[in-house]
Amino acid sequence: MLGHGDGYEAGGSDSFVGRTRELALIERALREDRLITLTGSGGVGKTRLARRAADLAADLAAELAAGPAEPAGATAAVGRFPDGVHWADLSPLPDERLLVATVADALDLADHTARTPGAAVRQWIGERRLLLVLDCCEHLVTAVRDLVRELLDAAPHLVLLLTSRQPLGLADERVLDVGPLPHAADPSGPEEALALFTRRAAAAAPGQAPPWTEARLAAARSVCARLEGVPLALELAAAQLTDHTIEELAARLARRIGPLSAPAPGGPPRHRALRTAIGWSHEWCAPRERLLWLRLSVFGGAFDLAAARAVCSAAPLTEADVPPLLDALVAKSVVRRGADGSYRMLDTIREYGAMWCDEAGERGALREAHAGYFTELVRAAERDWLGPAQRTGYRHVEAAHGDLCAALDHHLATAAPERALDLVARAGFYWACCGHLHAARGYLERALAAARPEKVAPRVRARALWALGVTLLLQGEQEQAHRIAVGCEALAASLDGDPGPALDAAYLLGLSHLLAGRPLAARIVSDNALEAHPGTPFDSGPRIRCHLVRVFALTGTGLFTDARAEAELLRAGCEERGEHWTRAYADYQLALICLFEGHPVESAVHARAMLESKRELGDSFGTALGLDLLAAARAATGDGAGAARAYGTGHAYWQAVGHPQRGTPELASVRAEFERTARGELGDRAYEEAFREGLRHGHALRTRPHPY
Fold this sequence. Notes:
Elements: H1 20-32, E1 35-39, H2 46-66, H3 76-79, E2 85-89, H4 99-106, H5 117-125, E3 131-135, H6 141-154, E4 159-164, E5 174-177, H7 192-204, H8 214-226, H9 231-239, H10 246-257, H11 269-284, H12 287-296, H13 305-312, H14 322-331, E6 336-337, E7 343-344, H15 347-360, H16 363-383, H17 390-399, H18 401-413, H19 417-434, H20 437-450, H21 458-474, H22 478-493, H23 500-515, H24 519-532, H25 541-556, H26 560-577, H27 581-596, H28 600-617, H29 620-636, H30 640-657, H31 665-682, H32 684-701
Parallel strand pairs: 1-4, 1-5, 2-3, 3-4
Antiparallel strand pairs: 6-7
Helix pairs in contact: 4-5, 5-6, 7-8, 7-9, 8-10, 9-11, 12-14, 12-15, 13-16, 16-17, 16-18, 18-19, 19-20, 19-21, 20-21, 21-22, 21-23, 22-23, 23-24, 23-25, 24-25, 25-26, 25-27, 26-27, 27-28, 27-29, 28-29, 29-30, 29-31, 30-31, 30-32, 31-32
C-alpha cells in the first residue's frame, strides 16, 4: 500500500524526470538483495526515486495478480512481491517510539492483541513476499537498524528498500548512492537537470517556457550547473521565475555562488547549492511568509488549512492572513499541496524553518497551540458522536493520529500529564475502533501513572480507565479489563450529576460478561444502569452503548423477539441521525437473530449493511465479524462458493487484527455450523479454492475501498 505523502512530489509521478540508470540499479538490487538503502544528501531526490521504483513494482505486481498472462515488461523483481508494496514515511517521527506502529500502519495491520507491536509485525509478515519501503530513516538510524535486522531474520521473503542520508551499516546492506541530476558541466550523462528545470520553469512561469533563445538556454544551463543538479534546489529556483527571468536568475546565482570552478568550502558542492537555494527562497519570501514558514515547521507530516490557521495565527498573523500566505509558500515551492488538498513541507525545508523557529523562541508556544488544536479536534468528534458527523470525526481522529501522539508527548514532556490524560481519555475509544490499540494502551497507562490524583477530575480519571478497559478487552485481556470495569463502576458510584460514567462502566462491565459467555449477567448490569439513570437511548453515547449491550444480552439469552424489537429501534434511530457505529452493531445483531430464526436472506441484508457502516469507520475488527455473518447467511441460502469466498475474505481481516476468529460465544457455533454446510455442499477441494480466492480478495481490500 503506497500511502503516506503520496501526491506531494512536485508535478506528480507523471512528471518524473530521468534516473534511468538509477532505476535499473534498483530493479537489479530488488532481484538480488533483501536490503537496499538509497543514500544521498537532502534534496537530491531519494524519496522520489524510491517512490518511482516502488510504483513500478506495485503497478506490475497488480497486473500479475489480475490475470494469468504475464504483462509486458514484468520482471523477476516484480514477481517477488505478490503480497504488495508498502510505504512507511518516517519523516514525521520525532523519535523511535512510534517507529514500529508506523510500519504496522503501512502494512495496514490493526493488531488487536496484547503482544508487542514488533512481534505483531514480524508474525504478520511471516512468509509473505512483499516489498516494504522505509522512507527518511536518517534520524532514526539505530532504531531502524534494529528493526530491520529483526524483520529480515523473521521474514525470509521480505525485501526492504530504505532512503536515508546515511546507510545502516549492516553486513548484507546494498547501498546505492543517489547523486544530483547530470547537467552541462557534468559529462556523465544526458542533461536531466536541464529537463527538470525546464519542466518546472514552464509550470511556474508559462511565459518563459521553451522554445528558448540560445542566450536563455545558456542561462538555464548555468543555473543547473551552479545548483549542481540538485533537484530540490532546481525546483526552488524555478519557482522564482514568477518574479525573475532565467537570465536574471543565472546572474544572481553567479554573484551568490561564484565561478563554476570555485572550490566549495564547508562541504560538497551539492550541500552548498541546496543551502543557497533554500536560503535564497527564504530571502525571497516576504517577512510574514517567513514567519508562517517557521511556524509551519511544528507539523511533522501533512496538515490542512484549518490546522494551519488555528496553530499558526498568533500575532502578528491573524487567521485570515494564513490562507494567502500559505498559497504564496506553495507558489514558491516551500510548501507542497497534496492531491487531497492537504499540505506538507519536505524535511529539508521544514528543518530550515525549525531552525528559525528556535531562533525566534516560538517553539514552546507553537507546541502548546498545536496540542490545543488537536485536543479540540477530539472534543468536537466526541460532541458529534451521535450524529451525521460521526464518520467525519472518526476520519479526522484517524488522520490526526501522529499529531495526537505529538500532543500527548508534549504534555508528558512538559510536566502536564493531567492534560495528557484528558486528551487520551477522549481519543482512546476512537483509537480502539481504528486499530491503534497499542498506542491507546501505552499512552493511557503512561498518563494514568504520571497524573497526580489530586489534580485530575474524577470524571476524567473514570473516562481514562474506561477507555483502557475497552482497549484491554479488544486485546483479549479479559480478566484485567473486567477488574478495571468493576473499578469504573465503583468510581462512577461516587460521582453525582452526569450519568455518563455509570453508563460507560455498565457498558464495559456488560461487554466483559458477554465476551466471557455470561449474557444474563450482562443483561442485569445494563438493566440496572438504565433503570438507575432513565432516559431515551439517544440521549448520549454512553446511554446508547449501554442499550446495545442489552440487545446483545437478549440475543445471548435466546430472547430473540425482544432483541429484534430493540435492535430495530436502535437501527432506525441511528439511520435517522446518520450514526454508523451503533447502527453497525444493531445490524450485526439483526443478522445473527435472522440466522437463528431461519431467515438467511434477511440476515445477508443486515450483514451487508453492517459492512458498509464499518467501511465508513475504517473498523477492521467489525468488518471481520460482518464477513463471518455474511458467509454464514450465504451458506444457509445454499451458496456454498459465496460462503467460502466470504470466509476467506474475513480471514484476511482476522489476520490483520492478529486474532483467531473472535466475537461473542454464540457466533462461534454459527461459524462452525455454516462452514461445515458450505464444505458439505462444495467438497473440500472446491471449498479451499473458493476460500483462497476470497483470501486474495481480502488482502486486496485491505488497501482499497470495500465493495460490499
